């Protein structure tokens, strides 16, 4: 039986301590937000740090969930996230599959993709393009300009190159067309890649607020993160109170902010367990050839 030395045990103890400290830096702020959102204003003012509420109060959640603007922004974000992610995966995977096959001008097209990855037009030219294409002040302004990520496209292309060409040739010999090969053979083999990039795109769309701030002047089209910015960063709770019923007394601004943060964070956290099985394989996409 192998006996571990005291140096190995000390090393393991240091590693465990570091991991606990790192986990605490992530869990404690989340626990604080959770506790404050369920605390009364009196308890919030009396304590410097609320680890666990003495009396559970749900006024902030009832106030937010009964607000039309917050509910509308949630549905806008869900639409942008779901439709945007599906379009991202569709355009990225099809273009990557085409670039993984040799054709005339392939190197030029790959160079143009890489060029857009290294150099971007900037905020003002992009804004002018969105304006001239009549996407300004529409939900599609948050989806179409970011349909394809150059980095994801390059990595996805490498992933398709690693799929054995013999599978495609066998399907073509059996009479399958290029689209059938892509849909019936390539995509089922690409579940780890689709799950990984789908997760990346989903998080990008759900957390997006800057593009909404640039392109959307209509508050009814604001995604949840942009509304959350008004509530937390700008400290403008009037954006919620404008459509609120007159007979509902608004809770303290601090508890409202914490409840809004929690409600905007939980949905994206729920997505991770469903993609975890493929995500472990997907993070190694393009790193090993053969």
TrEMBL record:
Keywords assigned: Cell membrane, Membrane, Transmembrane, Transmembrane helix, Transport
One Gene Ontology cellular component annotation held by this UniProt entry: plasma membrane
Origin organism lineage: Bacteria, Bacillati, Bacillota, Bacilli, Bacillales
Membrane topology, record value: Multi-pass membrane protein
Family: Belongs to the binding-protein-dependent transport system permease family.
Signal peptide: none
PANTHER family: ABC TRANSPORTER PERMEASE PROTEIN MG189-RELATED-RELATED (PTHR43744), POLYGALACTURONAN_RHAMNOGALACTURONAN TRANSPORT SYSTEM PERMEASE PROTEIN YTCP (PTHR43744:SF9)
Pfam families linked to this entry: BPD_transp_1 (PF00528)
Statement: the UniProt record of this protein carries the keyword Oxidoreductase: no
Protein origin, superkingdom: Bacteria
Span of domain ABC transmembrane type-1: 74-275
Protein name: Carbohydrate ABC transporter permease
TM segment ranges: 12-34, 74-97, 109-129, 135-156, 194-216, 257-275
Record's subcellular location: Cell membrane
GO biological process: transmembrane transport
Keyword check for Cell membrane: yes
């Amino acid at each position: 039986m192998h006996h571990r030395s005291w140096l190995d045990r000390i090393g393991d103890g240091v590693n465990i301590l570091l991991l606990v400290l790192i986990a605490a830096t992530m869990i404690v702020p989340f626990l604080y937000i959770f506790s404050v959102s369920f605390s009364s204003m009196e308890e919030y003012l009396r304590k410097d740090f609320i680890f666990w509420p003495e009396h559970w109060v749900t006024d902030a959640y009832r106030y937010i969930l009964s607000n039309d603007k917050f509910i509308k922004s949630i549905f806008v974000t869900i639409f942008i996230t779901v439709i945007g992610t599906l379009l991202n995966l569709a355009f990225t995977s099809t273009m990557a599959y085409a670039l993984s096959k040799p054709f005339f001008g392939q190197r030029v097209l790959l160079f143009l993709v890489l060029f857009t990855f290294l150099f971007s037009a900037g905020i003002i030219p992009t804004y002018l393009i969105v304006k001239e294409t009549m996407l300004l002040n529409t939900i599609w302004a948050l989806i179409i300009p970011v349909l394809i990520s150059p980095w994801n496209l390059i990595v996805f292309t490498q992933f398709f190159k690693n799929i054995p060409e013999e599978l495609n040739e066998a399907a073509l010999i059996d009479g399958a067309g290029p689209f059938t090969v892509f849909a019936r053979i390539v995509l089922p083999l690409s579940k780890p890649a689709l799950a990984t990039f789908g997760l990346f795109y989903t998080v990008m769309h759900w957390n997006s607020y800057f593009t909404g701030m640039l392109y959307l002047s209509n508050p009814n089209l604001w995604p949840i993160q942009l509304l959350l910015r008004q509530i937390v960063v700008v400290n403008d709770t009037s954006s919620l109170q404008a459509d609120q019923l007159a007979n509902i007394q608004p809770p303290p601004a601090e508890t409202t902010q914490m409840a809004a943060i929690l409600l905007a964070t939980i949905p994206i956290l729920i997505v991770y367990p469903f993609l975890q099985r493929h995500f472990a394989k997907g993070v190694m996409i393009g790193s090993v050839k053969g």
